[in-house]
Amino acid sequence: MTITDNLRIIGERIRAAEQRYGREPNSVKLIAVSKHQPLTAIQEALQTQQYAFGENYVQEMQEKALALALNDSCIEWHFIGPIQTNKTRPIAELATWVHSIDRLKVAQRLNDQRPSQLAPLQVCIQVNLSEEASKSGVAFYEAEALAHQIKTLDRLQLRGLMAIPAPSKDVAVQRQVFRRLRELKDQLNQQSFKLDTLSMGMTDDMEAAIAEGATQVRIGTAIFGARNY
Ligand SMILES: *Cc1c(COP(=O)(O)O)cnc(C)c1O
After folding, report:
1. Is 54 within 8 Å of 100 (Cβ atoms)?
2. Pocket test for ligand 1, best of 61, 218, 219, 229 (most atoms within 8 A of CB)
3. Which residue is closest in CA terms to ligand 1's atom 4?
4. pLDDT attached to residue 194
5. pLDDT tens digit string along 29-66?
6. How confident is the model over 147-188, as pLDDT tens digits?
7. Domain boundaries, the chain
8. Which residues sit with their C-beta closer than 6 Å to ligand 1?
9. Nearest to residue 158, comparing CAs of 186, 105, 195, 126?
10. Where does the pLDDT of residue 73 fall: very low under 50, low under 70, confident under 90, or very high at 90 and above?
11. How many Å lie between the centroid of ligand 1 and the Cα of residue 116?
12. Which residue in 45, 115, 126, 198 has a CA-CA distance of 20 to 30 Å to 212?
């Protein structure tokens, strides 16, 4: 199977899940997670009009953006990894989206460093839905306070919430966890927020995420195969 084949199959799976779960056609966007994949893999995906790529490591995103900038300025970089405060500048300068904001300090720095000639950075708050499994993400009950703080930063546009649940093979469990993120978004929207994004679903839980309202799925392995560490 080539990357081109995999992208076609994932596209078909997303469209089928939209239909099965009563979602609007084309309401789920595919982010191709290219971390630890070579430039050639991204170039093959670009041939199929896949333009949104997810990266976890600042330096890797910088190197790839630099290498591809001349020919492929249509690329949309999504930063999805943990963010160190001292590495925000390249993210502010290169990314269109940041999915992994989990504290005010990082949000403030991204806001201050976002170049004025670029559109505001589109951001999601990463919420830690399964505390024991991961250290990343703001605690569920702290998300609302962070959302209010981000709202005051005019170079950031708060679009929604992101989560990486603990892996489970049980689709009912997968759905239950994603549902909590959707409910949190709905709860914030009942206040003054206008969130339109749920970034949730990876290779092994994509359908469950779409069933529960994902608007962006972040897929690596099913497109590019195993990563080379
Ligand atoms: C690696 C990664 C993905 C992609 O995971 P796959 O299981 O390979 O699809 C998605 N989101 C984040 C935040 C990741 O780090």
Report:
1. no
2. 218
3. 220
4. 97
5. 999 999 999 999 999 999 999 999 999 999 999 999 99
6. 999 999 999 999 999 999 999 999 999 999 999 999 999 999
7. 3-224
8. 33, 35, 56, 80, 164, 202-204, 218-222
9. 195
10. confident
11. 30
12. 45
Q: Which CATH superfamily is domain 3-224 in?
A: Alanine racemase (3.20.20.10)
Ligand 1, atom 12: nearest CA belongs to which residue?
80
User: 162 has which bridge partners?
Assistant: 126, 199
Whether the CB-CB separation of 161 and 199 falls below 8 Å is answered with yes
Q: Give the position, in ligand 1's atom list, of the atom nearest the Cα of 33.
A: 4
Ligand 1 geometric centre to CA of 179 (Å): 19
Give per-residue pLDDT as tens, 196-217. 999 999 999 999 999 999 999 9
Atom of ligand 1 nearest to the CA of 204: 7
Please give the pLDDT value at position 46.
95
Contact call for residues 211 and 45 (beta carbons, < 8 A): no
> Per-residue pLDDT for 70 more than 70?
no
Mutate to test the pocket of ligand 1, among 134, 202, 205, 221 (most ligand atoms within 8 A of CB): 202
Distance CA 119, CA 159 (A): 14
Residue type, 4: T
For the chain, what's the residue count? 229
